[in-house]
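Please go through the protein record below and explain what the tokens say about the fold. Record follows.
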Amino acid sequence: MINYDIVSAIFAFVLGAAIGSFLNVVIYRLPLDLSVNEPERSFCPSCKQPIPWRHNLPLLSWVVLRGRCATCGAPISFRYFAVELMTALLFLIIWRNYPWQIAVAYWVFIALVIAATFIDFEHFIIPDEITIGGTIAGLIACTLVPQLMERDRRSVALLISAGSAALGYALLWLILEGGKLVFGKKRIRLDQPTTFTWIRQGDDADLVVGEEKTLWSEFFARDSDQLLLYCANAKVAERDFGDTVLRFHYNRLEVGSDHFELDHLDEIRGTVTQIQIPREAMGRGDLKFLACVGAFLGWRAVLFAVFAGSLFGSIIGLITLLVGKRVWSLRLPFGPYLALGAVTWMFFGEWLFGWYQSLLLR
């Protein structure tokens, strides 16, 4: 006799692996503004040759080909296999632990979470197609399956979903703006005077301080942001300055009473002793991503994701600092930690909530 539990579990795992294969396409193409539909077939990131179906089987092909392109032999990142396996396992776990209506909705959510996580890790952005599209998908899912909000009436579930999405966005907006006021500037005193260069690269520039190299645009999230270099000496537009402060905006430079348009400069160099950099608590994509979490999982998940994400991010950030990463060049995406907090709530939220209540009643 057919064991339908085993058959359905296999189906969930295989479907998850196939969806994971598609997510790899999304993760690679979406940040590069490439269509996820054209070309329809996947292609090698190195030689750009289409990958035939027999070399594009989820999980199996990467193992059989030992992580290399069958055409050019270039290595294929382990990330492709990891995304497929992670998606397959999570699809299976969700299927085994939730009624099918909720499981299907959570499949959609987990696919969005995985795509957002890997894109944010690599590019430090979460595209609107995932955040705004995911929020809309969450509202639709809660209307069709009100049990996601633990309600029977669809209208009530929709209102709770929309309110939770709004709460997620507003909560992180307050944290973002409050963090900017309190921690929006960071001054780093270098151990000794260090050479620096600002070199134009097309529409952007490279800032190199000692052995550290950072893309210029990464420092400026707002028009009001300023980056200050406290210099022992500097050379700007063939003019020499000594013991001065270079006050950079994204598109212009102030040196005392002198003003320079960065569009008209190719290179700035000198010796710096201190740096003051503008900082953001997080990117605005994180706000929209938390709205997506709220739309699917509700307001309690929003609060838990913020708390758990901050905890996870702080631990990783501390470890990164302990291994010697410079503070001024450090970038940590917050989206993946919000995602981890949301997934933790999805599987263990009720147990954690009950445990916390029990502590309060003691």
